[in-house]
């Protein structure tokens, strides 16, 4: 069902009309003119159509089971008498999902939660197309969050693709797009969707922490080794160019070995003084 505008006129003019009918009807009744009774009844019936709309609030009007339309402009209005009014807030609201335990694409159990910012943009859909749109938003948000979490790994150790931890903006955008598709049915617009909690489940948190630490150590070692090789190459080239000493292949290999051990080692190296020669 699509929202449409309901019939309504300025409420102040409506109240003046109702008072005129009511006072005129009483005056006619006092004069024992029977026409005054229908005027009084008409005034009472019209009074049921007086409607006060607060800012960021809308009312859907239902008349004997038929949807007549929605009044969403703030102010005092006179609308269809005897109609049932169903109000919906149009304000922006936050929804914090529960912390869910799901398996990522690699089968690792992770804990994940998100905050959803939304508002109603179609009153008719929010009231008539779903049972309770607040519960609908909650359930669909958790369903979409579970679906997104199962499509990515928690972390990409090889750096070849997206991950929940490494690409939070991309994951949030995909979550927002999927939520919008799910909630169009309820006339709800998603303004923002952000992950608020992301962690490995307790049962594997320790093992995954060791894996992350090992990966960090390997990356650091790789940088150190690459830097050490560059320094050794520069040192040997400088010695050969300046003619400091003539190095044969065996001496060059020994120097490379000593320099690499000295640079790469985590502890300070202890020099060994050789008083003789290598031969």
From TrEMBL:
It comes from the Bacteria. The chain crosses the membrane at residues 7-27, 33-53. GO terms for molecular function: peptidase activity. Keywords: Hydrolase, Membrane, Protease, Transmembrane, Transmembrane helix. One of its GO terms (biological process) is proteolysis. Gene3D superfamilies: Band 7 domain. SUPFAM superfamilies: Band 7/SPFH domain. The keyword Protease applies. Signal peptide: none annotated. Residues 48-212 form the Band domain. This is Membrane protease subunit, stomatin/prohibitin. It comes from Desulfosporosinus orientis (strain ATCC 19365 / DSM 765 / NCIMB 8382 / VKM B-1628 / Singapore I).
